[in-house]
Amino acid sequence: MDSIPNLASLGLALPSAAYLAGAVLFGLLGYAAFRFGRRQGRSFYLWAAWR
Length: 51
Fold this sequence. Notes:
By secondary structure, the chain is mainly α.
């Protein structure tokens, strides 16, 4: 099975190490922001307050 060369001919390739590291870092940052926002316990949405 030559699946990787076939996918490469379609323009698909495995992501680089920098891409994977950036995705993991961005995910951890988003998770930390989610936990921080949940800990704040605001009873209203910020976008609703801007009306």
